Amino acid sequence: MTRTTSVVNAMTIDVEDYFQVSAFDGVVSREKWETMPSRVAANTRRLLQMFDEAGIKATFFVLGWVAERHPQLVSEIASAGHELASHGYGHRLVYDQSPDVFREDVRRAKAVIEDLGGLAVRGYRAPSYSITKKSLWALDVLAEEGYAYDASIFPIRHDRYGIPDAPRHPYWVGQNGHALVEAPPSTVRVLGTNLPIAGGGYFRLLPYWWTRWGITKLNSQERRPAIFYLHPWEIDPGQPRLSVGAVTSFRHYRNLHATEQRLRQLLADFSFGPLAQVVGDVA
Length: 283
Ligand SMILES: [Zn+2]
Hints:
Blueprint: E1 8-15, H1 30-33, H2 40-54, E2 59-62, H3 64-69, H4 71-79, E3 83-86, H5 99-117, E4 123-124, H6 137-144, E5 149-150, E6 171-175, E7 178-182, E8 187-190, E9 193-196, H7 200-205, H8 208-222, E10 227-230, H9 246-253, H10 256-269, E11 271-273, H11 275-282
Helix pairs in contact: 5-6
The structure holds zinc ion.
Zinc ion binds next to loops.
């Protein structure tokens, strides 16, 4: 297999079901989650299979709510040698929570996932990258709760998230003995602006060459690993269609049928490992 560069990039998966995305908050209430047909376990197992075939290890940021309902899945992820990390418990946006409620959420998720997986959870990623300038207090809470790194600050402009002038590569945050590493999703800098190149809708909606070009640029010119992310529902064209507005519909449903093949191509083109490994290089 000929890979573009020798840099090991981070492969990360946010393990949540198709109806739990923040854009569907007004469509599927939390009380309805239990009644929705669940597809997260089957989709995550397809990813595990693909990673196994490609010979790569990844990081799975599991939602605590999902972990409790699919305990077997959590132990399968761990026993396949992947990193288990936390996507919080209830998928509420960080900037919509008080610090106390947030602390309870990340503590509960960490305990549930560690209990089921039998591994220490070191990493956290917020729902919809919701650590922004309004919620930077969350980093102190995470460090106090024993997290070693956070992967939630997107250094771009977006309607729901982002700190456009935040650093683009992993860096230390915090002080007073409570420090952790921030590991942002990857961007490339073009004409003075950070553009997202490594995951989710940007991977699904834009042509594949964009991601390939961006990761190559990071690896070759900046000599940095990319931090890539995806959700299990993004490789599932068979998921039930919910009635949502045009913008949300485009962002969520477009190119679902093409994403699995695209991911296989990505795994062939670049090297990947767990995020803890990339973070460890900084620490
Ligand atoms: Zn999420």
